[in-house]
Write a structure and sequence with these properties.
single chain, mainly alpha
Length: 203
């Protein structure tokens, strides 16, 4: 026999899930466009159309919300990478899929234009020890690990060379995303991809 109380709880759970999504989406827009420090809780709740209590029912603090935003942005990039990877035929194209995913992220529609890597932008505002900085570091490490995986397939039995090349490409990628953010478009990302292709072809 169905517990009537359980049925009563389901709509509440769905409402909380919907509210969490609206809050996270509003925070993502404001954090990216205006910065983490400049964005207050009232701004986020107003844009999300929820009460302040609803925010604190879903996130323990602003720091918790920031970390959730950064994790969501990481997952967003992974989704772009996986779509690119699905169309690849060999390890060379796998390496370039990482660069293509960064370019795709730069080409998304942003309220005030592209401002660079949202993860790095946020990390620059956060103090040492903030959980959000750990999320960003893990993202960057995972990106480099993906490059290592593809390069190991290109360079079987040359693990050290694969790792060194991945580090080289990661530095190229990060430099390009910084310049692209300053210039407000993805041109530098496409140039970095071309450089990466030449580097890989010369291995």
């Amino acid at each position: 026999m169905t517990d009537p109380k359980a049925g009563d709880k389901q709509p509440v759970t769905r409402r909380r899930g919907a509210a969490r999504g609206r809050i996270l989406n509003a925070a993502a827009r404001r954090f990216y466009a205006d910065g983490v420090a400049a964005t207050g809780i009232d701004t986020i709740t107003t844009e999300a159309g929820v009460a302040k209590m609803s925010l604190y029912n879903n996130f323990a603090s602003k720091a918790d919300l920031v970390s959730a935003y950064l994790q969501a942005r990481h997952e967003e990039w992974l989704g772009l990478y996986r779509r690119r990877l699905a169309g690849t035929r060999n390890p060379r194209e796998g390496v370039l899929a990482v660069f293509d995913a960064y370019a795709d992220h730069a080409d998304l529609a942003y309220e005030h234009g592209f401002r660079g890597c949202g993860l790095l932008n946020a990390a620059a505002e956060l103090p040492n020890g903030h959980e959000g900085r750990t999320v960003v570091r893990h993202h960057k490490e995972q990106v480099e690990d993906l490059l290592v995986t593809h390069l190991r397939q290109l360079l079987p039995g040359q693990d050290e060379r694969a790792r060194a090349t991945a580090e080289h490409l990661a530095f190229l990628l990060e430099g390009a995303i910084v310049r692209a953010g300053l210039e407000g478009d993805g041109v530098r990302m496409r140039r970095a991809r071309d450089m990466a292709a030449r580097l890989v072809d010369g291995l």
